[in-house]
Design a protein that fits this description.
About 0% of the residues have low confidence. The protein is about 85% helix and about 0% strand. The longest helix is centred in the first third of the chain and has 49 residues. It has 12 helices and no strands. α3 packs across α4, α3 crosses α6 and α7 crosses α8. It has about 350 residues and is an all-alpha fold.
Length: about 350
Amino acid sequence: MQLLPLPVRRLAAWCAVALLVSGVVYVGIRLCVEFRTAVVPVLLALLGTALLGPLHRRLVKARVQRSVAAGLTCVAVVAVVGGAVYIVVAALIDSGDQIVTSLRRAAQDLARHFGAAGTSLDDLAANARELLGKFGGTAASGVISGVSVVGETIAMAVLALLLVFFFLRDSHLVAGTLRSLSPHATADTVVAIARRAYQAVEGFMRGTTLIALIDAVLITVGLLVLDVPGAAGLGALVFVGAYIPYLGAFISGAVAVLVALADRGFVIALWALGVVLAVQVLEGHVLQPMIQSRTVQMHPAVVMVTITAGASVAGILGMLLAVPLTAAAFGVVHELRGRYAASAPSDS
């Protein structure tokens, strides 16, 4: 190695570090995929704890015992999530046929205007139920072969809920546990890093939920004013899609505009497009800076790459988890940068 020039040796060292880090990350991802039944509930529980932490802290400040406060919080979550799922499912069931019919009519209009280019869209809309039936058949065959998707999902949901209870109840012990497990010289740094990562995830979850609710309400009201069919179901789609930044808003907004085009005509579709764009502009220029001003701000390109990577690893669940995990990573980087920047002048 001494025969090589110094720049070449430095390049080789950096390449070795990059390969080592890449290998560790790859092995970690593969282990998470293999043990997803245990890893996914932990990640979901952390997101749920970050979202529900303020409610639990308020109950504790009101002199409610920590276990009782955690139990009440979990019961409230079950009630709210269950009610929300019921409302969303009922809305989609009531308006699902209208949405599918409107999309099919939109595909037929495209086929008339663009000829054979729109035929595939028409066929896709016409065979939507058949595709869903095939998907259900695939799931059923998986159940027959011994892999129950529904049972696994229920088990992970129950485990995640139990973990949320324990995370909330014992949240005050986390700092002490980290200090006891860390070397004495780095204990403060480890605790600060963990706190910063958790604060980033907490801010992201609370901000995203509030923004999703505002977007869904505004778009639903706009579609109701325009008398677009299935406005409640489309609003529910907007709320769920808001948890996947940029991509979810684009897909849900495109569906709303297509439904308006098919059922109410070109002019109403333009108004629906205006409503969607206005809400997105309001979100990007007002809601995001105001609500998420205390969280780690990420460049849109980073968010898109993160979502793509999450989708390639774990599908839709990976898309949902990718951005908050990246926010936590950015929080760690900012904390380390601030600590090293503050200690560098003193060392010199």
